[in-house]
Amino acid sequence: MTRICIALNTKNWEEARRTINLLRKEAEMFKVGLPLYLGRGKDEVTTLIRDGVKIFLDLKLNDIPSVVSLSLEDIPKVEILTVHGLGGYDMVKEAVRTRSDIKIAVVSLMTSISGDWALGVFKRGTKGLISNIARISSEAGAWGLVVPGSFAKYVRKNFKNLNLVVPGVRLERGKDEHKFATGVLELKWLGEEDVIVLGREITESADPLEKLRRIKEQIG
After folding, report:
1. To the nearest whole number, what is the mean pLDDT of the chain?
2. Domains and CATH numbers, the chain
3. Are the C-beta atoms of 110 and 129 separated by less than 8 Å?
4. Any residues with CB less than 8 A from the CB of 194 and at least 6 apart, and which?
5. Do the Cβ atoms of 75 and 46 come closer than 8 Å?
6. Beta carbons of 138 and 158 less than 8 angstroms apart
7. pTM for this predicted structure
């Protein structure tokens, strides 16, 4: 079954720990973003890894290759780590070289960005932008691509060596900052190495454990 990652949308480690303890038997990994990682995140993540918790560290690193390489040297050995595709081929390749022990996933297009914005800034549609970043990621040896669900099949068809990480996945569609939110039933074709990221729909639910189990039934 496709791996499920729970996004820890908080900067409070006590709250994050409660979520992990509640859901760790049902979720394959947990996503730690920049707000949570800043401060004592390195020590907390190291402890979680030692306790057998798989961590998806979502830092979206984007800088010149040498700076990204330096930044990666002291990162704990997490399961997956993100760099941003807008950093270019050399940066992605340097990240892969520096941390060959970590699965490097390249962010193609954040789900909060609209198609009109991408067209206005990059003078190409979202599919063209995602295609270019997927090509860079593939050629640089990245493990996978973070891609909105509506473009996931396109990437799988054209870049078969890339695993897929799909954020903004929903059991019930709702209105928030995710312009490219995807229903879980649209992603039942994903493979066992692919990852779907579930966030507030789980963590802010009245019964997070039951909600997660329902979603697992849908994709199972």
Report:
1. 90
2. 3-219 (3.20.20.70)
3. no
4. 2, 3, 144, 163, 164, 165, 166
5. no
6. no
7. 0.91
